[in-house]
User: Which sequence fits this backbone?
């Protein structure tokens, strides 16, 4: 008995242990949340379901979230259904979440988030095998949310040969509703405004209260892009080589790139775009590339104030050139056009006593001149006619024939229609010249009239007419200089670099070489005059030490001439040339001679006189200055000059002088 | 260092030559002062101070007497036409030249420069390297290389016309012939009537605007081989006021206007005499070309009309006719300083006329002939003062 009881106990225990356990859920969590923002007048809600690790082996969480307000419990303000994902074997436990949102905010209103929480079982294949399988039901819902009756009953047979009955139960993706959660919130009375449907309209709340319309919510600011602004001043400059266009005529323009908002340390790129058919040249009839001029720097970086500044120097061709700037991370600026032109040129109109000739497809309008020139040309023709034809009309073929003056914007007037090569006609640049036909018909001027005509030329303002009548291209080259004084021509650091390259290496500096040297000049310029001179010495000397120069295999004589033309930008004088040649013949090395040029006063003065180096100013002798003060004088440091003012009233101190000589 | 301690006329001139800035007006001392101070310098050993003092006083007194004597016997001395200092210098900056076939262009240095041949004579060579690689040279004559003294005399005829008689002396110190001479006037009827005693015809005046529409009265006598009578353009700043008649010397006449010679011109006008401008230029003024234009930079070193010698003379001034006697007097008085500068009136005579014209015009007018005869006033001043009471 006792033994059978013990066996029974053991048997029952075994059976109990063998029966699949109805394991109870560890945890399923449900969440409902609701909130508001009275300022932006928004309602927020959240519904969520999530499982703990154990449960996640068998289920995925799901949730249905709904947001209601007190005025309608049928149709939610917002709703959504969320599905989570459980992959515990990979550590993935993603809850099911639904975020709810509504802008139907009203004060003193109840809002509710209502959540229905679900779990969805996995696909289950559960084999109940073993000697007790037939009697031990297999559950695919091990945590007891439901039972297996919702699943399928199946199996290959009711028993394999040699095996007991071996059924299986199948539950496919079944969703089990766990329950609901909800939470409500009551919005506060304020703000005392309502979203308006019409600007300025007074609104009535649901409870009958009135409130002014709410201000439009400030939209979230979006990042502002960097705007690139390009400024060029002045927008009209004179073409290179036309310094005589008038005192004060600007030769360069300042190019300023600004960022908005001001953004420092941004790289800037500038581009020059020459505009076709500008300045009186028709591009289609030209060969080569239209010169655009030169930017002091084509790239750079914005400074602390978000700006970048450089200088534009026009080419020798008149015309329009657009400048465009691009800032990294910003917009590309609009194009700003710079006019390279000689100002105040006027077109000579047809006249009774002269003919205009010389137009061409490449230069369709070739009679532009200063007022003096045009006025003078009309007077010349009238006076020529009066002198030799009195009051009789001048025959067509006898009229003076006026060939080229200048182009509409001045600048170089090339006849061979090649932008690069230039030719013998390039001097008609600023409206003061005109070529008058002399020796071919029509327009032939008899030899007996030429002395008178030359007087007529000068009376009309053509100073020093160039008489080319005995040359292969016979004509008179008139020049209406208008009494201008000698034009002070200026050389900039840029000119200097170009000229030294040309002199030493017989070629132009490429853009990088030019830029590098200009940067050196700039850096030295900031430090002062002495540093600028030193930089110029080093740069110029380096040309002679370059492999390129050494490869030219220049003789001593050529070397000295090169030094003159590079350092002093002139031909050698006889005495100086002999001196340096003798030095070389006497065994002094080329470096010695080069140093002589680099250290020369003439070279130093040339650098000081560059327009963009520090202001020239001799270094005065301090003893002279002291002496000046000791004499009661006023010292002028710019000119190292002592001025002692004359006695304003000599009679005051020397009455005897004034008594004798009343002129005092 | 430059130390300028005034007065020191010699030192100031040195500065001017060197191109130093001129900032103060020098005060001229009479020469006798320098003499007196020099003699009265360091006394010799053994010489009594008293004797030296007396000697100095005596010398100063003599100097003063001398000055007075000079002032009373002083005569006018006409100034020649003034010349602006314009020196031609080689261009410092110039463009390189390019030429050749496209793709095979050659850049070269034209090396434009001004070479002084004779600075005093204003002769230069304008040089550059031409497109053919050869040096080109154009001779240039500065327009100011001529010294001109102009004397203007006026006569009034019974018909009311004034005849303006000019003597243009080309001083022997000149270095070139007279290329052209210009006379200003302020009267439309001003008519050149004689050039070196050769009368003009209307045909000679064809270019003058005021005579252009009048039919010719015969063959031109001057414009073919003597002088072309023209008119300076009013568009030229130096000739914009009034009318400027230009007497342009033609090749056949050049030998008549060389240094040391004299040009006589006569104008007739109803307008009374006033102060007018005149100018001249040395020739030749046309450059002989060499087959290609010189570089622009070289062209620009040549001066314009501002370099032409210029000054004043007497000439027809039409608006004086409409002025009252007192206004005409004021016209003269306002120009007295200029007259003295031009060497047309002595300082003492100027003071006298300035005083007398304000109080007693008739006396002033009456005395002009006497002062002209004694060299105290010039023919120009004589004419203008006489014209106060026409």
Assistant:
């Amino acid at each position: 008995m006792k033994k059978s009881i013990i066996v029974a106990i053991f048997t029952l225990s075994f059976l109990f242990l063998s029966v699949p356990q109805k394991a109870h859920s560890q945890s399923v969590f449900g969440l409902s949340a609701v909130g508001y923002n009275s300022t932006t007048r928004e309602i927020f809600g959240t519904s969520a379901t999530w499982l703990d690790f154990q449960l996640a082996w068998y289920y995925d969480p799901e949730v249905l979230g709904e947001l209601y307000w007190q005025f309608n419990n049928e149709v939610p303000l917002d709703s959504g259904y969320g599905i989570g994902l459980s992959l515990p074997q990979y550590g993935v436990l993603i809850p099911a979440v639904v975020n709810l949102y509504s802008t139907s905010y009203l004060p003193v209103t109840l809002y509710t988030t209502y959540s229905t929480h679900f779990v969805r079982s996995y696909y289950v294949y559960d084999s109940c095998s073993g000697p007790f399988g037939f009697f031990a039901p297999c559950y695919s819902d091990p945590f007891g949310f439901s039972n297996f009756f919702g699943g399928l009953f199946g199996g290959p047979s009711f028993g394999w040969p040699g095996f007991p009955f071996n059924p299986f139960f199948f539950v496919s993706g079944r969703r089990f509703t766990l329950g609901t959660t909800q939470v409500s919130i009551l919005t506060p009375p304020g703000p005392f405004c309502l979203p308006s449907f019409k600007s300025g309209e007074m609104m009535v709340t649901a409870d009958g209260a009135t409130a002014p319309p709410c201000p439009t919510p400030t939209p979230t600011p979006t990042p502002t892009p960097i705007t690139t602004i390009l400024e060029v001043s002045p927008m009209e400059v004179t073409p290179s080589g036309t310094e005589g266009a008038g005192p004060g005529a600007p030769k360069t323009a300042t190019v300023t790139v600004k960022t908005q908002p001001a953004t420092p340390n941004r790289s800037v790129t500038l581009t020059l775009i020459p505009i076709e058919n500008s300045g009186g040249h028709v591009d289609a009839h030209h060969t080569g590339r239209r010169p655009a001029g030169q930017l002091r720097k084509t790239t750079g970086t914005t400074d602390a104030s978000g700006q970048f500044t450089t200088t534009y120097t026009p080419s020798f061709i008149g015309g329009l050139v657009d400048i465009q700037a691009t800032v990294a991370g910003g917009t590309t600026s609009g194009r700003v056009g710079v006019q390279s032109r000689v100002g105040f040129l006027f077109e000579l109109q047809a006249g009774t006593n002269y003919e205009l000739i010389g137009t061409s497809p490449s230069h369709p309008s070739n009679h532009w001149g200063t007022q003096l020139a045009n006025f003078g040309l009309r007077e010349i023709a009238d006076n020529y006619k009066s002198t030799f034809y009195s009051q009789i009309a001048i025959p067509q073929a006898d009229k003076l024939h006026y060939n080229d003056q200048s182009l509409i914007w001045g600048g170089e007037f090339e006849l061979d229609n090649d932008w690069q090569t230039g030719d013998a006609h390039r001097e008609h640049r600023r409206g003061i010249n005109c070529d008058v036909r002399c020796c071919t018909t029509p327009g032939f001027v008899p030899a007996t009239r030429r002395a008178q005509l030359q007087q007529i030329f000068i009376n009309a303002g053509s100073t020093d007419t160039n008489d080319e009548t005995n040359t292969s291209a016979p004509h008179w080259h008139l020049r209406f200089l208008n009494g201008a004084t000698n034009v002070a021509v200026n050389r900039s650091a840029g000119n200097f670099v170009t000229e030294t390259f040309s002199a030493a290496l017989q070629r132009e500096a490429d853009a990088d070489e030019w830029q590098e040297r200009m940067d050196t000049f700039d850096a030295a310029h900031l430090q002062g005059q002495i540093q600028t001179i030193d930089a110029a010495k080093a740069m110029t000397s380096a040309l002679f030490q370059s492999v390129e120069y050494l490869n030219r295999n220049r003789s001593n004589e050529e070397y000295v001439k090169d030094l003159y033309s590079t350092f002093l930008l002139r031909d050698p004088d006889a005495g100086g040339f002999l001196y340096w040649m003798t030095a070389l013949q006497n065994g002094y090395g080329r470096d010695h001679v080069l140093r002589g040029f680099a250290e020369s006063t003439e070279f130093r003065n040339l650098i000081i006189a560059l327009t963009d180096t520090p202001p020239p100013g001799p270094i005065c002798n301090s003893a002279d200055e002291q002496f000046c003060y000791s004499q009661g004088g006023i010292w002028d440091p710019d000119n190292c000059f002592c001025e002692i003012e004359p006695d304003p009233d000599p009679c005051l101190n020397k009455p005897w002088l004034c008594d004798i000589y009343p002129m005092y | 260092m430059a130390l300028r301690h005034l007065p020191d006329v010699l030192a100031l001139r040195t500065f001017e030559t060197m191109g130093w800035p001129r900032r103060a007006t020098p005060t001229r001392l009479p020469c006798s002062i320098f003499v007196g101070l020099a003699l009265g310098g360091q006394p010799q050993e053994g010489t009594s101070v008293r004797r030296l003092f007396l000697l100095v006083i005596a010398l100063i007194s003599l100097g003063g007497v001398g000055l007075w004597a000079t002032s009373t016997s002083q005569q006018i001395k006409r100034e020649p036409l003034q010349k602006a200092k314009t020196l031609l210098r080689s261009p410092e900056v110039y463009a390189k030249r390019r030429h050749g076939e496209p793709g095979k262009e050659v850049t070269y240095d034209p090396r434009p420069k001004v070479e002084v041949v004779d600075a005093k004579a204003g002769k230069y060579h304008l040089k550059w390297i031409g497109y053919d690689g050869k040096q080109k040279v154009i001779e240039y004559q500065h327009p100011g290389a001529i010294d001109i003294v102009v004397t203007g005399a006026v006569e009034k005829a019974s018909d009311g016309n004034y005849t303006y008689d000019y003597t243009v002396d080309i001083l022997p110190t000149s270095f070139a012939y007279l290329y052209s001479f210009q006379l200003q006037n302020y009267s439309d009827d001003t008519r050149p009537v004689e050039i070196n005693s050769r009368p003009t015809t209307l045909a000679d005046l064809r270019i003058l605007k005021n005579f252009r529409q009048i039919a010719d009265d015969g063959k031109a006598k001057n414009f073919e081989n003597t002088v072309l009578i023209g008119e300076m353009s009013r568009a030229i700043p130096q000739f914009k006021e009034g009318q400027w008649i230009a007497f342009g010397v033609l090749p056949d006449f050049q030998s008549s206007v060389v240094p040391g010679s004299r040009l006589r011109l006569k104008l007739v006008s109803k307008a009374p005499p006033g102060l007018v401008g005149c100018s001249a230029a040395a020739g030749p003024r046309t450059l002989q070309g060499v087959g290609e234009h010189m570089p622009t930079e070289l062209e620009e070193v040549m001066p314009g009309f501002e370099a032409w010698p210029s000054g004043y003379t007497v000439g027809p001034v039409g608006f004086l006719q409409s002025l009252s006697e007192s206004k005409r007097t004021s016209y003269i008085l306002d120009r007295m300083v200029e007259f003295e500068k031009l060497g047309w009136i002595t300082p003492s005579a100027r003071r006298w006329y300035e005083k007398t014209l304000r109080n007693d015009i008739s006396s002033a007018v009456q005395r002009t002939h006497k002062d002209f005869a004694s060299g105290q006033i010039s023919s120009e001043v004589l004419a203008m003062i006489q014209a106060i009471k026409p």
In short: The radius of gyration of chain A is 50 Å. Chain A touches chain B through 87 residues (CB under 8 Å). The longest helix of chain A spans residues 371-389.
